[in-house]
């Protein structure tokens, strides 16, 4: 019966652990036959996420299935951690609902809505709404997980293509695995991967954040600098966001101090991101990841 599930061309690329997913679906939807589920891949740089749908005359169900396999482990992703964080944040309207989990899959409720285009995302009104959400998150009780940045960078270092490591790069890597971190301003829960593709606007105008796989407690300045860099915010746009965050929502008392602290974290964000791209390159051999990381390699003087 399981062989009849509709995989829509994904048979050769996913679901070596499909039986585990089907068992999870049966556990939470016992009245729906396995052959009535339709599975299709969702785009995303981290991979491992699938749309799971069922359309019956009396019932429609849409879910997100997030794999917990070797590809995710390589990127320092842990679905057990993700599920627990979402459970802790379930009272907040900007988080997806956890349906269930086993050792290989995390099932989430589907979030219906539209991603903003880049122009909409950068509008002051949209940034105001995001500043409000980030404030709520940064003021929430601490999560059960701290971001282990040094461990994450070290983990990535074991998984990149060692042939690409020049003497300068090796020295740089030793620095980021041993140097002291910038002074922490405030430890708080953070999403750590906010960008337009991880945001949807529902039919009621509510913004929701998707893909919580990198969420953890970390310094607010590191979290904000990550957000600024991932989205290419200009100095003016950064200042506007920090004014909303500090002066409007009162998330931190000193905007100038916070802005300075964000800048002190900038090299750490860049190196973490560079190493993430390098792991993706080594795992997939997709040239896109080298294209994405080119400016970062230039920043650290690793080209030529």
Automatic annotation (TrEMBL):
Q: Sorted alphabetically, which SUPFAM superfamilies does this protein's record hold? A: Protein kinase-like (PK-like)
What is the originating organism of this protein? Providencia rettgeri
Q: Gene3D superfamilies per the record?
A: 3.90.1200.10
HAMAP family assigned:
Thiamine_kinase
Q: What is this protein's function?
A: Catalyzes the phosphorylation of thiamine to thiamine phosphate.
Lineage, highest ranks first:
Bacteria, Pseudomonadati, Pseudomonadota, Gammaproteobacteria, Enterobacterales
Pfam families, per database record: Choline_kinase
A single GO BP term for this record reads:
thiamine diphosphate biosynthetic process
Question: What EC number(s) does the entry state?
Answer: 2.7.1.89
Q: What is this protein called?
A: Thiamine kinase
Which chemical reaction does it catalyze?
A: thiamine + ATP = thiamine phosphate + ADP + H(+)
Q: Keywords assigned by UniProt?
A: ATP-binding, Kinase, Nucleotide-binding, Transferase
Family matches, as InterPro entries: Kinase-like_dom_sf (IPR011009), Thiamine_kinase (IPR014093)
Top-level EC class as recorded in UniProt:
transferase
Q: Give, as in the UniProt entry, the pathway in which the protein acts.
A: Cofactor biosynthesis; thiamine diphosphate biosynthesis; thiamine phosphate from thiamine: step 1/1
Q: Which family does it belong to?
A: Belongs to the thiamine kinase family.
Write out the GO MF terms.
Answer: ATP binding; thiamine kinase activity
